[in-house]
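Hi C.,

You asked whether I'd gotten around to modeling the 62-residue construct. I have! Everything is below, sequence then structure, no commentary in between.
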Amino acid sequence: MNIERKVRAFAGTVILLSLALGITQSPVFISNYFLWVTVFVGVNLLQSSFTGFCPLESMLKK
């Protein structure tokens, strides 16, 4: 599995997990503040599509 696929898998997992923890109808609900994690990951994916810089990708290369 190459780095790009790992980044996508990690981002998808974090988004789904933060939605499960942040939506009140979820059986594993903790707090609405977990939705900010979803926003952070989405913004990071958007900026990396424009700039080509992804912090997770640079960490995985090391």
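If it helps when you're writing up: The CA atoms of residues 22 and 33 lie 6 Å apart.

Thanks,
B.
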